[in-house]
Amino acid sequence: MGEAISLGEVQETLLIPLYGRAQDAGRPDSILRDTRAIELVAAIDYDFAKFRGPSLAGSVLRASIFDGYLRSYLAQHPEATVVDLGCGLSTRFDRLDNGRLHWFDLDLPDTIALRRTFFADSDRYTMIEGSILDDDWFEQVREPGGPVFLLSEAVLLYFPAETVHATLAQLAKGFPGSRLVLDTGGKAMMGTQDRNPVFKQVSARMKWVCDDPAALEPHGVRLLESRTFATPQPAVAYTWPLRYRLGMKIMRAVFPPPVTTYKLNLFETTGSSAETGPTNSLGPANSE
Ligand SMILES: C[S@@+](CC[C@H](N)C(=O)[O-])C[C@H]1O[C@@H](n2cnc3c(N)ncnc32)[C@H](O)[C@@H]1O
Questions:
Q1: Does 286 have pLDDT greater than 90?
Q2: pLDDT given for residue 275 in this prediction
Q3: Residue nearest (by alpha carbon) to ligand 1 atom 2
Q4: Is residue 12 assigned to a domain?
Q5: Which Pfam families does UniProt cross-reference here (predicted)?
Q6: What is the Å distance from ligand 1's center to 125 Cα?
Q7: Residues sharing a CB contact under 8 Å with residue 84, sequence separation 6 or more, in sequence order
Q8: Residue 241 domain-assigned (yes or no)
Q9: Is the N or the C terminus of the chain less surrounded, counting Cβ atoms within 10 Å?
Q10: If you average pLDDT over residues 60-73, what whole number do you get?
């Protein structure tokens, strides 16, 4: 009998990327080689097989692009503090730990309780029960003192736009001059959720529609890079099987919306927002 779970609506969605990574790890041309995900899926008492469709592979491509942003940053700032906001059962720390960084994995209490049955804190790795919407964890992650890299993967999508904007402004004010990676989904993606096979299996729905990540700049962030599955970082594309590398480009050429509506974005926090003062926007370098 596996580990019984009791998770809130949005929290349950963490099982989708976990299963996606486990499936990927079972393939000879695996992208992430996340064999820990296979162990976790085997250890959790849940009907993972009900999850089907392109979102499983999509969560692997997404994770690899997030990894790419962080890898580049760590090459320049090996002693950074990384904060994964809404980490779920991600194993990114195991993939990217360089022996020098400090890492915080933050998620809601029920998710972290589940996480603690499989992972343990160590001198440079700490789990925090908290919310991306709150600021009561800010002091704790500032403590190591390194430059801060914030990332939030498939989390903010579940909140209304006003909540996301206020959260960005709060993060920007709390961590000025930091990097922030997050994903955005446009109308074409949000409008088709009910037809997505994985969303037929969970009750949570994404709420935040964002067609243009540069439009977030009044909320204390400056867009540095924006990518889609058709435009991953070259070093990341190199790790993808040809079917994804070519497939995404062909899809974009033939019928762009499914590929171009979902974006993976790298921001710099400016420390001021429309609520707290003018931004110092230089305009984004958009790779799309
Ligand atoms: C789709 S899962 C993504 C998990 C992980 N980032 C990944 O990609 O594997 C959404 C995650 O958001 C977390 N979450 C929901 N509301 C949150 C909040 N207010 N603060 C932090 N995390 C939250 C859930 O617990 C869940 O782990």
A1: no
A2: 58
A3: 14
A4: no
A5: LCM (PF04072)
A6: 18
A7: 90, 92, 93, 103, 104, 105, 106, 151, 152, 153
A8: yes
A9: N
A10: 98
Kindly report the average pLDDT of the chain as a whole number: 93
Provide residues with CB under 6 Å of ligand 1: 10-11, 13-14, 17, 85-88, 90, 107-108, 111, 131-133, 153-155
**How many whole angstroms separate alpha carbon 216 and alpha carbon 224?**
12
DSSP one-letter code for 156: G
Q: Which tokens sit at 44?
A: 């959790």
- Looking at per-residue pLDDT, the higher value among 277 and 147 belongs to 147
Which tens digits make up the pLDDT trace of 10-61?
A: 999 999 999 999 999 999 999 999 999 999 999 999 999 999 999 999 999 9
Q: The domain that contains 246 carries what CATH number?
A: 3.40.50.150
Between CA 221 and CA 272 the distance in angstroms is: 8
Question: Which one of 131, 155, 157 would you pick to mutate in the ligand 1 pocket, going by the greatest count of ligand atoms within 8 A of its CB?
Answer: 155
Q: Which range marks the domain in which residue 194 is found? A: 58-269
Region of residue 237 (left: phi > 0; alpha: psi -120 to 50; beta: else): alpha
For 264, the enclosing helix (H) or strand (E) is strand 262-269
Residue 99 lies in a domain: yes
Q: Which atom of ligand 1 is nearest to the CA of 66?
A: 8
- How do residues 157-184 score in pLDDT, each as one tens digit? 999 999 999 999 999 999 999 999 999 9
Question: In whole angstroms, how far apart are CA 225 and each of 70, 119, 132, 210, 228?
Answer: 13, 32, 22, 16, 10
Nearest to 18 by CA among 73, 167, 231, 7: 7
Count of structural domains, the chain: 1
- The residue ranking higher by pLDDT, 153 or 191, is 153
pLDDT at 261 over 90: yes
Query: What's the length of the chain?
Result: 288
Distance 243 CA to ligand 1 centre (A): 29
φ, ψ of residue 265 to 5 degrees: the values are -120, 140
